[in-house]
Amino acid sequence: MPQESDPVEFVGRQPDERLLSEHLARLPESVGRPEAPTPLPARGRLVAVGATLTGVTLVAGLGLLVLGVILAVSDGVRLPSILALVAGVVLVSTHWGWVHVAEATADGLEQRHNAGTLERQRLWLQEIEPYPRWEVTTSAGEDGSVTISTVAYRPAAGGERTFTFIREIAGTEVHSGEEPAAAVAERAELLRRRAAADTARARERWATADDAYQRTLMDADDERQRVAALRAASQALSEQINANLRDPPLTE
């Protein structure tokens, strides 16, 4: 049986929201993928308007600066030249703000546009449980060989109360193109069954610990109750492991 993480370490943790973005590739294929947000149709136009206003503001600001200098030289430093210089400095120094305003406006509209999708994403994320999974994939080489890879997806702490996954190759086998196709397919199927069995055992261990944790935990904000729940989860997991030790090992 592959080395597994301690289920008790992850009870009470919530999925890290990064699993919806930069950690998405770490998720096992078996959990699927969340619904993707659709881009805001008007986003490009809003950004274009912001870029246009940025250019116009910069040109106008430079023009006012030039005008202020001309007025100051010709008529002396008077109110009109001062106003032109001040307005020019303000416009030049703030011209990039229009780009940020356009981006912020587009982001806000896009979030409202995808409000339903984002809510479904959060609900989908909450269904993911932090137990190890093993999956088997195959790939063909240019020389006709077939590589069978066992991929492990192990839960890892993402924050103080969150979890993510670490994806790693647990094993690879390269089969020559001269080997019978039926033999290679049989070997791949054997590894898939073994991966499924390992995943099922890991799921059972996690469920045992989590069930004991949830039954004991009365108030999630009470640290003493949380520690008591963790202790109960550890005890339940220990009893399950001791019971399984009396069973004969799985053989292929």
Topology:
Blueprint: E1 14-15, H1 43-75, H2 79-94, H3 97-113, H4 115-126, E2 133-140, E3 146-157, E4 162-175, H5 181-216, H6 223-245
Parallel strand pairs: 1-4
Antiparallel strand pairs: 2-3, 3-4
Helix pairs in contact: 1-2, 1-3, 5-6
Care to describe what's here?
By secondary structure, the protein is of the alpha+beta class. The chain is about 55% helix and about 15% strand. The chain has a four-stranded mixed beta sheet with strand order 1-4-3-2. The two termini are about 10 Å apart.
Summarize the model shown.
Helix 5 packs across helix 6. The protein has a four-stranded mixed beta sheet. It has six helices and four strands; from the N terminus they run βααααβββαα.
